[in-house]
Amino acid sequence: MKDEKLHAAITKNLDNIVGAVALAAFFLLLFEQSHLSVSVRYIIRRINIGVLLLFLCDVMARIALSPSLPAHIRRKWFDLIVFVPLIQFIPGVHGSSFFVVVRQIVIVVMLISRTRRTKNLIAGLGLRPAQLMITSFFFAICVGALLLSLPFSTVSGKSTSLTDAFFTATSATCVTGLIVKDTATHFTFLGQLVILALIQLGGLGIMTFSVGLAVLTGKRMQMQQRIVMHDVLDQESLSGATRLIMFIVRMTFSIEAVGALALAIVWWGRFGSVQRCFYHAVFHSISAFCNAGFSTFSDSLMGFSGDIATNAVICALIIAGGLGFFAVRDLFENARGRFLKREHGFLRLKIQTRIVIAVSLLLIAIGALGLFAFEAAAPPAGDNLKANILVAVFQSVSTRTAGFNTVDIGRLSSASLLLVIILMFIGASPGSTGGGLKTTTFAVLWASMMNGYSRNEQVEIYKRTIPPETLQKASTLLLFYILIVLGFVIALLLTEGLDLMRVLFESVSAVATVGLSTGITGQLSKTGRVLITLLMFIGRLGPLTIGYALVLHRPKSNYRYAEERVMIG
Questions:
Q1: Distance between CA atoms of 413 and 399, rounded to whole angstroms?
Q2: Which residues 6+ apart lie within 8 Å of 87 measured at CB?
Q3: Residues 144-189: pLDDT tens digits?
Q4: Which has the closest alpha carbon to 181: 159, 212, 152?
Q5: What pLDDT, on a 0 to 100 scale, did the predictor assign at position 506?
Q6: Cα–Cα distance, 81 to 169 (Å, whole number)
Q7: Which end of the chain is more exposed for a tag (fewer CB within 10 A), N or C?
Q8: How many other CB atoms are found less than 10 A from the CB of residue 544?
């Protein structure tokens, strides 16, 4: 019995050590192939040899602890590949290109075979759902940054620094759209595909995407994954979270496919070949639905400012992604009941859906009217009234978190820039691919202010009472966003030396994951780019998620202090 416990303890410790080393070795392997490792390639190769020796010790230890050597070898025969690098001791083999290739193949195989141990290591850390979300996003960003720094991701003669690679990967994963390198001219086709994959992952959410794939492939979800989904998706039951995941995946790919087909039809014959036409269509459909704002055109969509069809399709995709999965599902179920089940009467929309639709339409209308009026002195499309209306409507829709532009944002008036900042700060809706304070948060805070004037103790929207904890969460979220924006604006003013309006615009665009810029992104220093990268990361995950991850939760108190009034206002 003691031997069994000892063997179990040794095996567990080996799993933790090998899991951590395998995770680090994965990044090291990519790092070795990038532009970043030229000066330290010798050291990295020595570290890789050390990793191989650790794997070799791991295999030998497990063979020694196994009660039956033949049975162990039959189960773990692929582990024996770790002995292949011993061929380096054959004269003339060490240092050859053949040995380097073999060594890297062995490392990759051993990393794959130890993925389970890395998962066990992560599970053993006991991360809370918020911490797991942060870890997942950070891992995706790190992988994306390393892939974008590889030679195959950039065009010949160009390279991507570590800061720029992380900036671009964060912007794509956090579906922001701010760029320091032109997506169209700096990155190759493979590099653009890496960016597109990060956009898709970020749009769906790392956990949502992974569990959704598990459901579609028939794999059984673990209870921990179900609990995480319950926390992230705010469902009343775990089965409801699973159904929502399946709906999210189907809806996302369906809308993106329809959008890509529509854009391909609209852009037919523009790019010289069918393949290029479909590629641009697919890229912009995913980018628009995920509210990312990345474009394969250097001027974003300024070349389509007068194209009604392109503007309509992109706007429809942005709105569909910005409404939120909850609202879209509610609309879908009501539409199915109306047309398939022949139900009559008014739509039975949930309060959240009604708030999302009403606030979204109101903000789009206010934004379009405001931009049209504020730019009347110097209209972006000249004397063409229809084109100016189209620009105002499109920019109002895109401003909410999409980040596409059909006009030079840097040339807008100060009044227009301030209006855009307000719209970006409010952002999209909860459960959507967009960021920002969220339309429902804005609606709850507005209703609370209006009810405060009427001295009504309860906050009511559409004849429903909003719970006090919702009001507290909305107030906390607003204060968090204000403090975060102010803190980073001050830091950027100190490091960049730019004027307040442009720094404020850039900061709100980053934290709201919008991606619009007045043109200063490429001018930022390394420190400024790091600060904007942090803002995008905070904005995508949300201040509350990060707060829950970093702050230890205190148990709820079962007592209440005596009340005392404090003067307000």
A1: 15
A2: 93, 99, 102
A3: 888 888 788 888 888 888 889 989 999 999 989 899 999 999 999 9
A4: 159
A5: 95
A6: 34
A7: C
A8: 13
Using CA atoms, how far apart are residues 420 and 512, in angstroms rounded to an integer? 12
Alpha carbons 53 and 51: distance in angstroms, whole number: 5
In this predicted structure, the answer to whether residue 236 has a pLDDT above a threshold of 50 is: no
On the 0-12 / 13-18 / 19+ scale of CB atoms within 10 A, 342 is exposed
Is the separation of the CB atoms in 231 and 544 below 8 Å?
no
CA distances from 249 to 94, 211, 401 (A): 49, 10, 21
Q: Which residues contact 423 (CB under 8 A, 6 or more apart)?
A: 363, 367, 396, 399, 400
d(CA 16, CA 22): 10
Residue 20: both structure tokens together: 């951590």
- Residue among 191, 139, 189 nearest 165 (CA): 191
Q: Give the tokens for residue 312.
A: 């309509």
The DSSP bridge partners found for residue 464 are 461
Burial (Cβ within 10 Å: 0-12, 13-18, ≥19) of residue 461? buried
> Number of C-alpha atoms within 13 angstroms, CB side, residue 497?
2
Give the Cα separation of 366 and 369 in Å (integer).
5
d(CA 413, CA 416): 5
Q: Could you give the C-alpha distances from 100 to 18, 39, 104, 147, in angstroms and in order?
A: 22, 18, 6, 20
Asked whether the beta carbons of 435 and 427 are under 8 A apart, the reply is yes
